[in-house]
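RECORD TYPE: protein structure
NAME: NADP-dependent oxidoreductase
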Amino acid sequence: MKAFVVTRYSKTEKLQLTDVPRPAPQAGEVLLEVHATGLNVLDAKVRNGEFKLILPYKPPFVLGHDVAGVVAAVGAGVSQFKIGDEVYARPADQHIGTFAEFVAVPQADVARKPANLSINEAGAVPLVALTAWQALVEVAQLKKGQKVFIQAGSGGVGTVAIQLAKHLGAYVATTTSAANADWVKRLGADLVIDYKTQDFETLLSGYDVVLNSQDTPTLQKSLRILRPGGVAVSITGPPDGTFARAAGLPWYLRLVFGLLSFGIRRQARKLGVRYTFLFMRADGRQLGEITRLIEAGIIRPVVDKVFPFAQTNEALAYVESGRARGKVVVQVQ
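PREDICTED:
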């Protein structure tokens, strides 16, 4: 089968389109014919080698973290899906490889495709929607009447997080460019801050939750807009020792991540707030909950551009440019 492969970690070297063996589903796995795959900043970071300590993939390997497609075969013990089912998933770490014609995925990571989405729209959903769900529902436990600051509201995670937060009954502030202000308001944002001309720290205070997707200086400012007892959930780091322990990483990485996050954790303690690093995980059950929200019209994925499979490198470069509004999708089949 055809697949786009990381031949070596590099910020400049393109993915290589090559022939690789078609995977066979193992016990508990389903083989998916990939029809669409969403692209994420995570893909670029993995290719660049920025996550080698956490995810030590050995090149050559197939990249890709989102899939929507059709079940082509099932392994032993699979009872939830059958051949021909339309499904979508964010494959678990060590099972990635959706920039390909087929991918084998644990059935626990898979959910049925929302009936009201096209296959390309479905390919845009899993990683960003699970990130928003785990940040706002699982970690922050966002409640009706609370205030949440979601950074980069026009990005892949931001567009879903705004819609989810409004469904949960929160007041939502976000940042974007002036050109996107009215658009993110239609997604559900109550207060839109132009990040080019306005300083959110001077405009926001007493917030219950921050979803941080930017750099460390932005995270430091975000801690200061929280009320005492509030929580900042960061999906861009720095990783902390709690994450390292939960991920089962060796002791020396727990020490490294503890040192990397020491300044942020100390600042959070002084302010009486909580800091949590989130490295989202695959979860088919949660994806099923998201499916119900999509089918109810509560969440709608935003697709900026769809590229053909042959232009996967160009699609990834567009994601890295930061110009995408919502998600970028590659149509494989």
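COMMENT: The longest helix spans residues 126-139.
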